[in-house]
Structure formats: C-alpha cells, structure tokens
Inverse folding.
C-alpha cells in the first residue's frame, strides 16, 4: 500500500532521481559546514566547564571527557574533524562513511552547544535530515564517488524519492506540531493582543541576542491588529504540510515561511537560518538535471518570433 | 525491493516515534525535540529579568559588548546561557561537575549559594577573549567586565529598565 502511494507521487510531488537526493545531501551538509566554518571553536573552548549543563544524551559522557574537550586545542580538533567529514559528505566522497560520521559529529556538537545554552530548534530539522541521509544511497549521483567508480548499483526510483519525501515530511511536522503545541498550551489566549509585543520586547531588551533590532518597541502602538497577524502565522504553520503534497501551493507556503522567519529576526531578534536553508529540499532538482529540448526549443522560437 | 521498504519503514519509525513521544509529553530530551518554541506566549503581567554585558576600558569608558562577537558559536543560545548561569543551573544537575559539587558543599548546600556563583568564570572568559583581540597598549582594552541585570516588571509597555544588580570581574 505504502509503496504504491509513493509511486503515485514520485515525480509529481517528490523528485525521484539519485541526482535530486544527491543535491539534498549537498544542501544539508553545506548548511552545517558553513555554520561550523564561521563559528569560533577556540573561543567556545574558552567557556568555563563550570557553567556546562550536559543535556539529554550528552549526560552519558563523563566529565573527564568534557575537561579534555573544552580547551582551545580540543575544540579545534573537533572543528577539524567536522570540517573534514562535512566536506567529504558534501562532495560525496566515501559517502557511506562520511554521511554517518557527519551525523554523529553534528549531533554531538549541537548537543554541546545546547549544554551551555538552551534547547533551541533552529538546527534540529537539519540533524534529522542528516539522520535520514545517513541511511540512504545519497552518494549515487552528484558525488565524487560517482566520478571515481563507474559501476553503480541499480536501484528503484523509490530508493531516492522516499528519503526526500521523509525530509519534507519532517519539515512539515516541525511547523504543524509547533502550531498544535501552541494551541494545546495557550489555547486561544495565544491570540491576545499583548502576546506578540510582550514577547518581542522581552527579546529586544538585552544585548545577548543575535541582533539588536528595536522594531518590537513600536508594536504596542498597533497591538489591536496583531492578533490577526498571529492567527495568520498559526494557520500557516498548521497548513504547512500542504506544501509537501500540492506543488502549486508550495511556493506560496514557502514564501510565507521566508517572510515569517525574516519577521522574527527584525521583530524578536531571533533567526532560524539553518531551517530556512533547508527549504531547498522542496526544489524539484530533477528539472535542472534533465535536458528539456522542447522547452529550449520553445524559448528559442519565442526569442526568434 | 522488500528489503528497501523494510529499511525505510524502520528509519521512519525510528525518527517519528520519538518525535511523537516528545510532542505528546511536550518535552525535549536531546536529541529528541518537540517544537515548543514560544508556546506559552508573552504574558504582559509577568515580570522579566534581562542582562546587558558591559566593559570598563583602560581609558575610563564604559562600553556595551555583544557576546555574539566573542563566542559566536553560541549565537541564539547566549541569552539562555547567561540566564542559566545566573540561576546556578549547573549546580542543579543530578551529577554536577566536581568543582561545582565542592563549592556547593563549602557553601552548605545549593540554597546557600549566591545567585550567579559561576558568573565570574564566564565574565573572565569573555573579558580575556575581548582583550586578546587588541594590542597590549590599546586604551580600548578592558580593565573590568560586568554583567548588569535589569528587570521589566510587566503590566505595562513602559519602565523596562529597573536596575537589579551587577556582577563585576577585574581583568
């Protein structure tokens, strides 16, 4: 039943080629690679271990391990390992190994960051995408492995389409469950006119956030209109799963997502760059891989006439 | 083909079952997440504390310092790192770091620790990182760094900056 369902949507809503899955591999690895490259690991290694609060699975590691790691040298070794693994995963080099090592290293590094701060969610979707990629043949195309080895195992389109569908469903879950949790916890009081200004101002008072925009202090002046804006955001989150199954709605919903995440940056000084980058998973990359002579011909004739 | 279906079925279950558990319980247990970002909304009546990091330069100026520029890897988590440090949360672990356990023992228990018992450690790390970027003769180097705590009592969109206390660390 399930495979028939997948076959029905292959190439209609989810690209079904090894190339498309390869591009997804590049997008996810490149997102984490960029964030690792711009992060100062040596500075992170200077933070005192006395304020570390290992969270979740990070509590399985002994304090002696963190003592060795939380030094500029220890953190630079971690950074080097991550860069090597993520570059190999991005390029599709020794893919079966590099995608798994990238997954493990990113889970560890993100857990370390959350052990100093809080369980924020920006990178979590990317972590789950790495988990999906780690168990899929995402190096069959668009990879150095493909160039170096001529023989590739023939696989059905399902092998490539389903992981992409799974990653899109994960993103849909992120937004859908977020809307449901808000309604479960706060109910309709979430739509009170003081909700957004109070939250936004709180996140604009200190100098510890990503940015220091002051738009929030203007919100109380228009607070009677804000419940409409908040309700629209909740509806957008609730209906995000439609972006997976209805390609015509996809760009409208994703466009709404870009606008939403940019608005949180300016209004609340909170940004989700990793999650935004993963919108690339919704692009039908097969359109870019297959030559379309008819389309080229049409364009040429349009130019000529 | 059947093996492939089975493999992907296991992968799907392995990912979604923990996510649904976290959603039902509204609980984050790393790396299992529930997307409870800002789920409670902002109650205007609730008071809130916040912090501003400042430095005192050799030339006598007081300047605002954005920690993002010192430990950028922490980015969106910096404010909660400070929040947790002021609240002594690293002492509340089931198995605290040995030096923290020792400090707690000397103080006579968690309840006898002053707020922000480890804030000086954090301030020294940030202060040293800041100074290392400047030449030894620079008047912009810090002689001290401090964390100023303020409170917005709530109830109204005004009076955001009631000063509460400050932690200061000489460098």
């Amino acid at each position: 039943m399930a495979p028939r369902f997948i076959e029905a949507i292959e190439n209609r809503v989810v690209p079904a080629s090894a190339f498309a899955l390869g591009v997804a591999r590049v997008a996810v690895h490149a997102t984490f690679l960029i964030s690792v490259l711009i992060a100062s690991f040596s500075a992170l290694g200077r933070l005192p271990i006395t304020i570390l609060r290992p969270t979740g699975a990070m509590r399985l590691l002994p304090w002696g391990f963190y003592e060795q790691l939380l030094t500029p040298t220890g953190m630079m070794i971690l950074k080097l390992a991550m860069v090597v693994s993520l570059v190999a995963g991005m390029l599709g080099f020794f893919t079966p190994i590099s995608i798994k090592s990238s997954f493990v290293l990113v889970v560890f590094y993100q857990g370390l960051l959350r052990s100093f701060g809080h369980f924020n969610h920006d990178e979590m979707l990317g972590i789950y995408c790495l988990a999906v990629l780690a168990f899929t043949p995402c190096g069959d195309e668009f990879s150095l492995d493909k160039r170096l080895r001529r023989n590739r195992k023939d696989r059905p389109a399902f092998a490539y389409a389903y992981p992409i569908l799974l990653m899109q469903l994960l993103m849909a879950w992120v937004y859908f469950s977020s809307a449901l949790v808000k309604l479960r916890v706060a109910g309709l009081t979430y739509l009170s006119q003081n909700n957004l200004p109070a939250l936004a101002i709180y996140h604009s008072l200190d100098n510890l956030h990503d940015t220091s925009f002051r738009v929030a202090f203007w919100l109380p002046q228009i607070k009677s209109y804000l419940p409409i804006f908040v309700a629209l955001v909740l509806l957008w989150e609730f209906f995000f799963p439609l972006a997976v199954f209805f390609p015509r709605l996809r760009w409208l919903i994703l466009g709404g997502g870009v606008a939403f995440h940019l608005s949180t940056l300016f209004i609340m000084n909170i940004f989700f760059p990793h999650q935004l980058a993963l919108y690339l998973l919704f692009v039908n990359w097969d359109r870019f891989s297959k030559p379309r002579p008819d389309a080229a011909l049409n364009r040429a004739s349009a130019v000529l006439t | 083909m059947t093996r492939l279906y089975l493999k992907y079925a296991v992968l799907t279950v392995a990912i979604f079952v923990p996510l649904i558990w976290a959603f039902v319980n509204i609980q984050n247990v790393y790396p299992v997440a529930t997307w409870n970002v800002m789920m409670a909304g902002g109650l205007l009546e609730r008071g809130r504390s916040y912090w501003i990091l400042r430095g005192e330069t050799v030339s006598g100026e007081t300047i605002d310092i954005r920690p993002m520029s010192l430990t950028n890897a922490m980015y969106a988590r910096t404010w909660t790192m400070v929040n947790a440090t002021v609240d002594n949360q690293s002492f509340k672990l089931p198995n605290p770091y040995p030096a923290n356990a020792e400090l707690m023992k000397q103080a006579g228990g968690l309840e006898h620790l002053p707020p922000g018992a480890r804030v000086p450690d954090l301030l020294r790390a940030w202060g040293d990182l800041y100074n290392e970027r400047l030449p030894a003769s620079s008047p912009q180097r810090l002689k001290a760094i401090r964390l100023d705590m303020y409170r917005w009592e709530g109830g109204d969109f005004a009076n955001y900056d009631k000063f509460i206390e400050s932690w200061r660390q000489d460098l």
